[in-house]
Write a structure and sequence with these properties.
The protein is of the alpha+beta class. Helix content is about 25%, strand content about 50%. A seven-stranded antiparallel β-sheet has the order 1-7-6-5-4-3-2.
Length: about 140
């Protein structure tokens, strides 16, 4: 199963970064390729969210999220075209008032795509994703 992971730092506290990543309704325009998001169910620490993205082609899928503010957010696909779509953010204070984040994702495409191509696609998209999150966190930090 293709798995990618990375570590990144963001200039806002872990609680603020958590609030940013669970602000699902504002993902379109904030994260490249996200066309629409609909929150289908929500409790204080869990969400069911439908995403429509365009990466090579358009995909619509639903993820179940669970988290603890300032600590972690994890997800797993409940409906959609992927064989596997799951991942996790792990957040911690970086010692300077910001967030040290660890991001990991397992994604296996449901259609016939060689593993080397799908892993390459995911790996090449990861730097852009972290850049988008860094821009959003920096904008929030600068107020």
């Amino acid at each position: 199963m293709p798995k990618v992971q990375t570590d990144a730092n963001f200039p806002i506290a872990p609680e603020a970064f958590y609030d940013l990543i669970v602000d699902f309704e504002n993902l379109p325009g904030r994260i490249t390729g996200v066309e629409s998001v609909k929150v289908l169910d929500k409790t204080p620490d869990a969400w069911v969210v439908e995403h429509t993205i365009r990466v090579i082609k358009r995909f619509t899928y639903t993820l179940a999220f669970r988290g603890e503010r300032g600590k972690f957010l994890e997800w797993k696909q409940v409906e959609g075209p992927f064989k596997v779509n799951e991942g996790r953010w792990t957040l911690a204070e970086d010692g300077a008032g910001g967030t040290a984040a660890h991001y990991e994702m397992n994604l296996e495409l449901g259609m016939f795509v060689p593993r080397s191509i799908s892993k390459g696609l995911i790996a090449s998209d990861l730097p852009r994703l972290m850049s988008d999150w860094r821009k959003a966190a920096t904008a929030l930090a600068e107020g």
